[in-house]
Amino acid sequence: MFNGKTTKFIGELSQTDLEGLSWIMPKERGGVLKTYSKEGYAVVFEMKKKQTKVIPKVVGTDISFHVKTDAEGWLMEDWRVSEEAEKGAYLGELEKDFSELPEQQIRQVLYKLQHTYKVDVTDFRDSLRINYPKTWKKIKDDWDQIFSTVHITYNVKINISNPGSSTE
Questions:
Q1: How much is the pTM?
Q2: Whose CA is closest to 120, among 131, 136, 133?
Q3: Helix (H) or strand (E) holding 131
Q4: 145-164 per-position pLDDT tens digit
Q5: Contact between 147 and 65 (Cβ < 8 Å)
Q6: Alpha carbon distance 114, 140 (integer Å)
Q7: Quick one: which of 37, 50, 62, 127 is 20 to 30 A from 148 by CA?
Q8: What does the alpha-carbon distance between residue 117 and residue 12 come to, in Å, rounded to a whole number?
Q9: pLDDT digits over 78-104, tens only?
Q10: Is residue 2 part of a domain?
């Protein structure tokens, strides 16, 4: 990453950071998540569709954001259960497990962006500029510094639309 004002290199993001970033960037598509069942078997989810909304909120001088991501995809591998058992409660558990993974990645990358590098490489500035143009005009010159202090919440919801393949 480079500082936009000084054009100096300030650091880089890991693969996990980039995956977290892709969950909060509205235009990014695709991806695979891997987790393990309680029994220790690998389970893989492939994202087919994703919708992300970055919702800014301005109250006085306080700026905050909420990132809402809904993803739909297929269960690609599950080495634990038969196809008949992949319904209901089990899929619900997996959806919850898969939702926690991107939230961890988002938490990690936001920490780095806000506290380590103090730079916004996401669509937060655009969302604020479009929804609160008067506020943006006042703060745009100091945005990266302000970005490092704003409160950001996020929620990822995973929907497994196709149980895919499995092996008993």
A1: 0.85
A2: 136
A3: helix 124-131
A4: 999 999 999 999 999 988 76
A5: no
A6: 16
A7: 50
A8: 9
A9: 655 555 554 677 788 889 999 999 999
A10: no
